[in-house]
Amino acid sequence: MTNTNKKVVPEARESLEKFKYEVANEVGVNLKNGYNGNISARDAGRIGGNMVRKLIEQAESQMINK
Question: Can you give the residue ranges of every domain in the chain?
Answer without folding.
Answer: 11-32+40-64
